[in-house]
Amino acid sequence: MKILPIIVLLLVALPALAQDNNCYKPDIGREDMVKCLEAKHEQSKKEMEALREELSKANERLSKIENEPGIRPCVPCSTGTSYSCTRLEAANKCESLGMRLCTLAELGAYGEAGLATCCWGWVGDPPPPENFSRTTGTAAFVMGSSASTGYSSGCSGDPGGLRISNSVSHTQKYAAHCCRK
Q1: 48 φ/ψ angles, rounded to the nearest 5 degrees
Q2: How many angstroms separate the CA atoms of 124 and 178, rounded?
Q3: Are the CB atoms for 110 and 145 separated by under 8 Å?
Q4: Cys-Cys crosslink for 142: which of 9, 26, 29, 111, Cβ 3.0 to 4.6 Å?
Q5: CA-CA distance, 166 to 140, in Å (whole number)?
Q6: What is the pLDDT along the chain (181 residues), one digit of tens a residue?
Q7: Helices and strands of the chain, counted as H and E runs
């Protein structure tokens, strides 16, 4: 019973498959046609394995991105102190993490979600027009959204909202508030 499917394959399906895979040549025998198809099959298996491997790597990268926090507040540019970044260094630090400087709106949203940093950090927003200068930027920190979310020890003032400093010299040293791109 097992020989019948093989004979059907050899007599009927094989020439059609071989033609689709550039293995059909009227002047070659069935053995050569089978060898050609087997070689094409092996090549296809290798290509499929390479595609599976590429898909696996892409899924792994995607998983890392999905599990990455949306924000990394208070990122220092060097060890020893959190206030170690000029504005350019802060932007570069975020970029090296695959992130960018947060906006004030993002920091505010994270504050409403309970984040409290009590750490000055550079943000991507420029100063408002009345304070705009090519040599200044904006720094901010989040106190948390309410008394229930609390705030970091060492912070003074009422919890809730952003503390913003406009017109800060780009050379001033703060941390970097980095957000997902």
Answers
A1: -65, -40
A2: 9
A3: no
A4: 111
A5: 9
A6: 445 445 444 555 555 544 455 777 777 788 888 888 888 888 888 888 888 888 777 666 656 555 556 888 888 988 878 889 999 999 999 999 999 999 988 888 877 776 777 788 999 988 777 767 778 889 998 875 444 444 444 566 666 667 888 888 999 999 999 998 8
A7: 5, 6
